Amino acid sequence: MKLKKVILNTVALIILVALLVLVTAAKPYRRGFWCSDETIKYKKQKETVDVKQLALLCALLPFIVIIITEIVASKKVEKLILSKLKKQNNRRSSSEPESSFWANLGSVTYSWFFTLSLTALITGVIKVQVGRLRPVFYLMCLPDVSCSDPVNQGVYLTNYTCTAANESTENFIRSSFPSGHTSYTISSMLFLIIYYSKRFNVDKNNDWRFLIALIQTGFLSIALYVGLSRVADNIHHWQDVLGGFIIGVVVTLVCACFLDHFNSSNEEKSDQNDSKSKVDYPERLETF
Fold first, then answer.
1. How far is CA 35 from CA 26, 155, 237, in A?
2. A GO molecular-function term, please (predicted)?
């Protein structure tokens, strides 16, 4: 990648992360509640997927998958490239495959992290603005107003104080929509699904297509499992999970469409080589 491109990408990522930090520190909208609302009176259960496990699934797992995939793909393609160079008596440096490996690894990793960060930013903004109460709100808050008092029946209560929650806990129980666990996970897993399709050129002529499809199904299953667990654990309403799923899918697909440099990189490479000395480098994949 050119220096200018690296600088611009770095600046964009820094701005994105800075905005994400600001949104994370913001307090959610303070919403009232109805005493008759039974959807916010569930008991909190142990999380099936906690924050640490989420980090492993959304951050560590994709990074490891990308590294392993690039190593496997580059090794597989290197023989083909060197064979083409030999047949054409091309004296281009044999270090090209290695340099392309690092370029691809950097490009894919950046694209994945940018997509995930953008998903987190949009999810965070909506959480703060909506301030939907979680299913465990009432028992974790224990508001200082009595729902057994007839005066509070049929009244939208806004003037109350949580007696059982500190500031951090109160922010947590006021940020139900959309589900961050779901949006982060589906964003990372969908990225890997699209990445595999692009990286291995999955079509009917690909001998690996069924194995790749199985791996992609595994990625999708992880995202679905995380989302459904949030409902089962009474941490989110089902609408929160659906909203998180939609956000993660839309953001990732948009990034895949507008940040895909695969075709442009091929065009640039084509312009730099004349028809006699041109060699296709299928391992060069500056993906979205």
1. 27, 8, 18
2. phosphatidate phosphatase activity
